[in-house]
Amino acid sequence: MQPVVGLLTGTSGVVARAGGLARATSTVGHWTGLGAYLLVALAVMCVLLSEKHARSRRTAVLSLVVILAGIVSTLTLAILIGATLLVILTFVQSSRLRHRLVPIALGGLLAAPLLAAPLLARLRQQFGSNPGAYAQSSGLIPESIAYRWEIWQNQTLPLIAERPLVGWGQGFYIELGTWPIFPYFVTWRSAESQYLLELVEGGLLQLAAFTGVLFTIALMFGWMSQGERKIIAMCFVTAVAAAFTVPIFTNVGLIGLLLPVLGVLLIGREHRSGAAGAKSRDVKWALS
């Protein structure tokens, strides 16, 4: 499976192993970061496919399939759920894609045997017995949530309680244990949550500022066309949800592609509005 994962993500050697599973990281360096990066790329392909006058639709479909394969190779469940919702939304919005549902479904069935084994292994890891793991799954609570809860309860939340307003300072986890004044009970090198990380490093003040940034990004969706807005918003909501269990906005991967995509879409909107206004003025001039 490792050569296949490397091929799908553009690199053959950069593969990280977690719990006995090969999870693609590519040049991003982490499977969640790669999954977030590819999720934005997937959203772009979905926007292109949902356009009424989309060009090179076959190329876009092929690109979408390759991106989906890359997302699957990261085995990141939150990103996989978000990608599934994006594809479903795109099919709902595009009548042309719905007409091609049968050949696309057949292609998915052909790819299923290659993708089923790693996905099933990931689910067994999350809900099965993992001797030696930091924490074990319990009922419907997966292992990845169980071990985070242990870390939050024993390290992160007590750490935040000591300095709730201003936090401990930037680079807390990067320079773990090297500061003259440092809480002795913190040994895990991550807050395992974007929002808790903001509280650890900058307290309530930084969390409020970060929330303002997210709100500003959300406001940008109102300037997009309806089709673009739904798809990009779905991508953003997935990231906001995933941020409860990973610092997805400050890790490498997501923001480096999301912000440029938002900029291009907004510029395109302004260009279309300007072109429509110029055409309307030309029509009025001709009629006069």
Describe the structure.
- This protein has ten helices and two strands, in the order H-E-E-H-H-H-H-H-H-H-H-H.
- It is mainly α and 288 residues long.
- The protein has one domain.
- Strands 1-2 form a two-stranded antiparallel ribbon.
- Strand 1 and strand 2 form a beta hairpin.
- The longest helix has 33 residues.
- It is globular.
Task: Show the helix and strand layout.
Layout: H1 2-9, E1 15-18, E2 21-24, H2 31-50, H3 57-74, H4 77-93, H5 95-99, H6 101-127, H7 143-162, H8 194-220, H9 226-242, H10 255-287
Antiparallel strand pairs: 1-2
The dominant shape is globular
Total number of helices: 10
Please report the distance between the alpha carbons of the first and last residues.
69 Å
Given the helix and strand composition, which structural class is it? mainly alpha
Helix content: 55-70%
Mean pLDDT: 79
Give me the side-by-side strand order of the main sheet.
1-2
What series of H and E elements makes up the topology? HEEHHHHHHHHH
Biggest sheet: strands, sense, closure? 2 strands, antiparallel
The unreliable regions are 1-17
Alpha-carbon Rg, integer: 22 Å
Number of strands: 2
Number of domains: 1
Share in β-strands: under 5%
